[in-house]
Design goal:
With about 230 residues, the protein is an alpha/beta fold. A five-stranded parallel beta sheet has the order 2-6-1-7-8, sandwiched between helices. The chain is globular, with a radius of gyration of 17 Å.
């Protein structure tokens, strides 16, 4: 079994990509905690910049306005997998960024090239500073942000399974509406010109539809440990 000591001497960068509802966040946090690695939720950073724009009356239907404002907010991500944090201009944003309003606008904001450039640079600096290694989760980590990651994993699941998981997270949500929203989000994220949601050629695909969360975690931990051993 891996220990923190072993981790320090064999730092590894793990990229975990995939659409919403595949278990990315739960899996990534658990894998990082189990292997003694740092953790970064890149989606939270895009949510944070979206939340800031909504709070500062930026027209999020205007790519030009978004681009002009993109460099203004100061976003800081804590990388402890047992208690990840995110602040915007010093204010805790971990709760506010999960609202439906932010969820409905984040694809449009994150599609703007200037936003992606700024956030990608932030993500790379965080990964480079993680001395013991890091698990980075998102949609374009293996393809754009960290193309030289030691191991790349792409999580998938059927729209039905993903919608059921998301509906379970949000009380009173409508399963059909959740499924439709996920499909629309997939189309927006996969179709954007800048750093679209995509599986890297050298990524290992894991279909989580029929797997429990614990099974997915064990699968990913095994893949990372095999990579470490090979190295």
């Amino acid at each position: 079994m891996s220990t923190a000591v072993e981790t320090a001497s064999s730092a590894v960068i793990v990229a975990i990509d995939g659409p919403s509802g595949t278990g990315k966040s739960s899996t990534s946090k658990a894998v990082a905690a189990k292997l003694g690695l740092s953790y970064l939720d890149t989606g939270a950073q895009y949510r944070a910049i979206t939340w800031w724009m909504l709070n500062n009356d930026i027209d999020v239907t205007s790519p030009a306005e978004i681009a002009t404002a993109a460099a203004k907010p100061v976003i800081i991500s804590g990388t402890d997998p047992t208690g990840p944090t995110i602040t915007v201009d010093g204010e805790d944003a971990s709760g506010p960024i999960r609202t439906q309003e932010v969820t409905s606008k984040v694809s449009a904001v994150s599609a703007v090239p200037e936003v992606r450039t700024i956030i990608t640079e932030l993500q790379r600096s965080i990964a480079a500073g993680a001395e013991g290694g890091i698990v980075v989760e998102g949609r374009d980590i293996g393809t754009t942000v960290l193309p030289d990651a030691d191991i790349k994993i792409f999580l998938t699941a059927s729209p039905e399974a993903r919608a059921a998981r998301r509906s379970g997270e949000v009380k009173g949500s409508d399963l059909a509406a959740t499924r439709e929203a996920l499909i629309l989000r997939d189309a927006a994220d996969s179709g954007r010109k800048t750093s679209p949601l995509a599986k890297a050629d050298d990524a290992v695909e894991v279909d989580t539809t029929e797997l429990t969360l614990q099974q997915v975690i064990e699968c990913v931990v095994t893949l990372v440990e095999e990579k470490r051993t090979a190295a």
